[in-house]
Structures are given as C-alpha cells and as structure tokens.
Amino acid sequence: RYGWRDSSKGKGDGHQAMKNLNDQLEGVKEAFDRATAVAHYSAVDNGWWGARNDIVAASSDWAGAALGLAAQCNVTIAALGLICSEAGEAMEFVRTGDGSDDKLPQYRGVDVELVDIIIRALDLLGKREAPVGEILVAKLRKNAERGHMHGGKLA
What we know:
The chain contains 7 helices and no strands. By secondary structure, it is mainly α.
C-alpha cells in the first residue's frame, strides 16, 4: 500500500527498498515541520499554553531557576498526560466496537483519537522546539533497517 517495499518478495532487495524509502521520505521532513508549527501555534492561539507558561514564569520569579525548571518538568508531564488520555479514548473506541467519532462522524473514532495523539505530540514537540521532521526521517530510516520485528521481539 505504501509502495516503498515490495511485500510480494518478502523483504525484497535491500538496496532497492532503501532507494524507494528515500524517494518516499522526500518532503516528509518539511511536511512534519509545518504540521508541528500548525499544531503548536493553534494550541497557543487557543490558550493551551498561556497558563502553563505563566506557571513556569511565576515559579521562576518566585523561587528562582530551580523551581522554574521543576515547573517546566510538571508542565511537560501534564502535556504527556493529555497524550495518554487521547490513547485511552482510542482504546475505548476499540473496546466498544470502533464506531464513528462524535465530532467527525465520517471517520472511525479510533482513527480520530490516534490523530489527536499526533496533534498533541506535535504541539509538545513544537513547544520544545524539537526538529520533528529531521527526527522522524532519521527514526523511519533506522526502523526500516532493523529487520523483521526488530530482531525477533515478541511485542
């Protein structure tokens, strides 16, 4: 379906598979960097980061850099918790039969919740100013080289 590896030949020709992978990755870095900016600045515009930033700033002003760093850690943990809550919502859709999403009924609920995970992750990565596209491309290349089930892992 995705075209970079011919599954009819098992693993296929490794050199050709990597060439096809490189062709498929063309533009992924830029697309994910743009998506990260959209996700993060949308969250900023919708107020998700205002109070979080205020907590970190107030903690730093009140008790210095050490407390500000601890507050930043807690803000990051809270953002990760929101990602986990989206995973819980996706699991609930699977558990109850994978019906339509209530806000986007043209899509299955689990798919919408998985996209919510991506959006929340991109938002946090944007806040952290991470080079998302670069990391994603490097990770996709690394995973493509790891072999069948990453060397025989069961899960």
